[in-house]
Design brief:
The complex is a heterodimer of chains A (108) and B (113). With 108 residues, chain A is mainly β. Helices cover 0% and strands 56% of the residues of chain A. Chain A contains no helices and eleven strands. With 113 residues, chain B is an all-beta fold. Chain B is built from no helices and eleven strands. The model of chain B has no long low-confidence stretch (mean pLDDT 94). At the A-B interface, strand 5, strand 9 and strand 10 of A face strand 5 of B.
Chain lengths: 108, 113
């Protein structure tokens, strides 16, 4: 069974600061997805990465996929209060396996 | 509007009283699944279905049943709920497995006393 570890578990920062969250796997990812979940809602897909070394940008969010496809990071530049939420990484193989998530709080 | 709907959104019940949580999607997706979310454990898959009449166990299937008689519906059945099934439940659908985007419903918060 694949284990996905996310760190840190909790992160609280001031608006305007940068942050990075990490996702590590015990085995190679088939394809890696990042989701964001806001309170009272279901997760929403942010990005899918497939190729080792891949970097994708989504406005202020930068996603990196490790060369060996066993780790990934999500970097947010100049965080805003709207970035508050639970960030989940997932391996989308024949079934979706999630990490426990990083709870990000951006203070005004 | 493309969406996954779940009902009810909140449910408080007692041990042993059978219940069903409904899930419906309007995107003609073949793949549907159920997850439970518990603090510190993330989302864990209960059951999934690759198409009508095709279902399979996920990571935590004990105590749950599902059926897929129609493409759009995928109900979750708890025949005899127990307190350890108190959790937040999500239904999801997608066009297929692999790198497809999963669309999640809004969640059902279940409390079993």
């Amino acid at each position: 069974t694949q284990l996905l570890e996310q760190s840190p578990q909790f992160l609280s920062i001031q608006e305007g600061e940068n942050l990075t969250v990490y996702c590590n796997s015990s085995s190679v990812f088939s394809s890696l997805q990042w989701y964001r979940q806001e309170p009272g809602e279901g997760p929403v897909l942010l990005v899918t990465v497939v190729t080792g070394g891949e970097v994708k940008k989504l406005k202020r969010l930068t996603f990196q996929f490790g060369d060996a496809r066993k780790d990934s990071s999500l970097h947010i530049t100049a965080a805003q209060t709207g970035d508050t939420g639970l960030y989940l990484c997932a391996d989308n193989d024949y079934k979706l396996s999630f990490g426990a998530g990083t709870t990000v709080t951006v203070r005004a | 509007e493309a969406q996954v709907t779940q009902n009810p959104r909140y449910l408080i019940t007692v041990t042993g009283k059978k219940l069903t949580v409904t899930c419906s999607q309007n995107m003609n997706h073949e793949y549907m699944s159920w997850y439970r979310q518990d603090p510190g454990l993330g989302l864990r898959q209960i059951y999934y279905s690759m198409n009508v009449e095709v279902t399979d166990k996920g990571d935590v299937p004990e105590g749950y049943k599902v059926s897929r008689k129609e493409k759009r519906n995928f109900p979750l059945i708890l025949e005899s709920p127990s307190p350890n099934q108190t959790s937040l439940y999500f239904c999801a659908s997608s066009s297929g497995q692999g790198s497809y985007e999963q669309y999640f419903g809004p969640g059902t918060r279940l409390t079993v006393t």
